[in-house]
Amino acid sequence: AIDKDSSQPLKKYIKELGGWPIVDGHKWNESRFDWKQTMIKLMKLGFNHNILFTLYVSPDIKTSEKHIITIDQPSLGTPNRKYLLRGLNDTVVRAYKKVIIESAQSLGVKNRTYLENEANKIIAFEAKLAEYSIPSEKRRNFTELYNKYTIEEMQTLAPSIDFLDIIRAIVSEDIQKDEFVIIKVPKFLTNLESLLLEEDERTIANYMVWRAVFSSIAQLDRKWRNIIENYDRVLSGRTIEKARWDTCIKKLFNYFGTPLSALYVRHTFDEKSREIASQMVTYIKNRFISILETINWMDEKTRKRALDKAKAIRPQIGYSTELLDDNKIGEIYENLTLETNTYYESIQKMRLFFNEMDLKKLREAYLKDE
After folding, report:
1. Which intervals of the chain form a coiled coil (predicted)?
2. What is the pLDDT of residue 267?
């Protein structure tokens, strides 16, 4: 079915995104492009929307019972920003550029000089995003990454970007301008605004749609998978192509990990052994609490804090009991509908389904054993 569909599913989605300039050439209409609407469309179609900046819902580390909207620097097409910062002479970047060119060729573009020029612009734009992002070694201090703003206050960082509209479209329509958000790298948003104002619309559109194409390649036919194989080899150093069954198993676990884990648990684990282990942990916990209550070298304030922490311990033995409850597992997937004859669209629907599930957690209490 995948080989039979070939590029058709991808072409359909590219059209819904407003076309890919590198493929459409002079027919692409710049006046109809709006990067904010394209970002929203990417999310609604099941693509990664976090390609100019990242927008997601996560536990609030300073109010641990709640979730909060979090804004961060974007994901990149290469696994590390350092490659893009090295420029077109870098081996990984050259392989990455080749994927862009061959993807456009697979969609019918023949002019190599034109493709080289367009691909260079895409990479130069992404390199700017990499330049404005901070490296992983500077992201270890969680306090520095915890910058709480209201959406109205966030607007002052990049006045030309209507964050409220974007957040409402992606997270929830009931979001108001006094909603709190965490902005991990505030300066990134200011730099992003400058980049978007100075860059031409064609390059921004080329980059955004390219990222949708790039994330689609693994779901397409053999011709497409051959395009990315060389890039993967450059990144990993592999000389042998990864077995197709390995990819299929990983996809299966990625989207259906819970029911598969339930099957594994039911066929492998001995419930009696779990009960014995649970009793042991409970005994150790209770013994520790009794020791805390009797030691004389600890002041009362410290003792109370230690006791509160000890009593809050929630043992996790082997697996969650929810894996034994078919109804609980069924609830996770009850709103997911898949068409079995379209692999590509099934993947997109699952991506959207799980992304929406995470975004809907905003108004839910955060459970520490999630």
Report:
1. none
2. 83
Same domain, 237 and 326: no
pLDDT in tens, 240-291: 777 878 888 888 888 898 899 888 888 888 778 888 888 999 999 999 999 9
Extended strands (E) in 184-245: none
Task: Determine the pLDDT at residue 96.
Answer: 97
Q: What is the pLDDT of residues 157-177, one digit of tens each?
A: 999 999 999 999 999 999 999
140 exposure class (CB count in 10 Å sphere: 0-12, 13-18, 19+): exposed
> Looking at the domain assignment, is residue 253 inside a domain?
no
In single-letter form, the type of residue at position 212 comes to A
As a whole number of Å, the CA-based R_g of the chain is 24
b or e along 30-47 (b: 16 or more beta carbons within 10 Å of the residue's beta carbon)? eeebebeebbbbbbebbb
Looking at residue 360, what is its pLDDT?
94
Residue 94: CB atoms within 10 A of its CB come to 15
Q: How far apart are CA 271 and CA 277, in angstroms?
A: 10
Buried b (16+ CB within 10 A) or exposed e, 316-348: ebebeeebeeeeebeeeeeeeeeeeebbbbbbb
Q: Is residue 368 part of a domain?
A: no
Q: Are residues 83 and 172 in the same domain?
A: yes
Range of the domain at 295: 259-333
Q: pLDDT averaged over the chain?
A: 92
- 141: CB partners within 8 A, 6+ apart: none
Whether 190 and 219 map to the same domain: the answer is: yes
**Sign of the dihedral through C-alpha 88, 92, 96, 101:** positive
Number of domains forming the structure of the chain: 2
Asked whether residue 272 falls in the same domain as residue 327, the answer is yes
Q: Is 367's pLDDT higher than 80?
A: no
Percent of the chain with pLDDT over 90: 68
Q: What is the edge-to-edge ordering of all strands in the sheet holding 67-72?
A: 54-59, 67-72, 180-183, 148-150
Q: How far is CA 317 from CA 260, 269, 324, in A?
A: 18, 11, 14
